[in-house]
Design goal:
The structure holds two protein chains of two kinds.
Chain A: H1 3-20, H2 25-48, H3 53-119, H4 122-136, E1 149-150, E2 158-163, E3 168-171, E4 173-174, H5 184-193, E5 196-200, E6 208-215, E7 221-228, H6 230-260
Parallel strand pairs in A: 1-4
Antiparallel strand pairs in A: 2-3, 2-7, 5-6, 6-7
Helix pairs in contact in A: 1-2, 1-3, 2-3, 3-6
Chain B: H1 2-16, H2 24-35, H3 43-55, E1 59-63, H4 66-72, E2 78-82, H5 84-100
Antiparallel strand pairs in B: 1-2
Classes of the chains: A alpha+beta, B mainly alpha.
Chain lengths: 273, 111
Amino acid sequence: MTWLQAASARVVACWTRLYTAGLPAPIRDRRREEIGADVHGQLDEARSRRERPAMTAAAVMSRLVRGAWHDLSWRHEVSRPVSVARWQARRGWWVTGVLLITVAACMAWLSYGLSLRNGGDRQPLRLAAAAAGHLASGSPPGSVLPPVINVASNSAPFVIVFDARHHVLASSGHLNGRTPGLSSGVLAWVAAHGQDRITWQPGPGLREAAVIEPYGGLHPGFVLAAQSLQGISGQQRSLIRSIAYLWLAALAVSYLIARLLPARTTRPRHPIL
Amino acid sequence: MPIEQAILACGIELTAAGEPGFYGFAMARQIRDASAARQLTAHGTLYKALARLEQAGLLTSSWEDPGPAEAERRPRRRLYQVTPGGEQAVLSSAGQRASTAPRPGLGLAPA
């Protein structure tokens, strides 16, 4: 055998190893042995016919190239039942994984989302408690207010002081030149149950973290401290986007793992065996 | 299915010539000679067709005894045999060809 013939035989062997890689051992080994015996037979015949080595090598390579498409389609045919069976065996695990990933994503969204929202109450809580303390000790309503702001354009905190009959006594927040209106049901609830924390919408597109605190003293009433949730809403939207992307990525990765991870067993499943 | 018909027809011819079974390269050579082609059937075409015929029950196959292969210092061969169903398929296919467009020879067409 000349080096040219040996090289052509080696190329065929390499190609056969390549397109049979990953198949169940009996199918893979049978195809490799059959092709090896075939090429050996062809080289033997060429020797007996005293064929020129270059011609023989070209003939061997020609058989490889002309049949390459059929090699690949054969591989597709024999590997399909294996991959389908593997997927059917793993589908249950994947569905369970999807549920766990979804539950984890929901829990992350709930815990971080609530934590962000609760963070918005900190400043109003401090303001309301301080103002209620001062008002109970007799300070005038106007003295407990922070700087006046326009609620529609400024996200700084503001305070509104009400008397016991729900009339506004003083306010540092204005909306279109007026004090934002609060449902009297909220103040009635606070009168009955004590402090309340709400998400308040004083106008279209406005969301405020509001804390309403009752105060006592000679002239009892209620104090509302609020701060815009605009920044927190942006963080919440960003959080939802991040969790959604992570959720989709986790689903895709788990699906690919379930579909493509090689099986531990190489039991033959193809019907020709 | 020309290549499948060619394999079955040549397999029957080889059996009639006294071969107990035929192997891949012998089949490629037989198809080439019978169809007066210049080239041998491609590996992929031949072995894919053999696998399909076996799956359809028209061929059976088994590995040859290791003795002859060791004695001749060559790889062992997978030996195929045409089943009665395969013979029947060739006969009915030849009958159909004869009734529609009769022509001499096997009408083989290797890929």
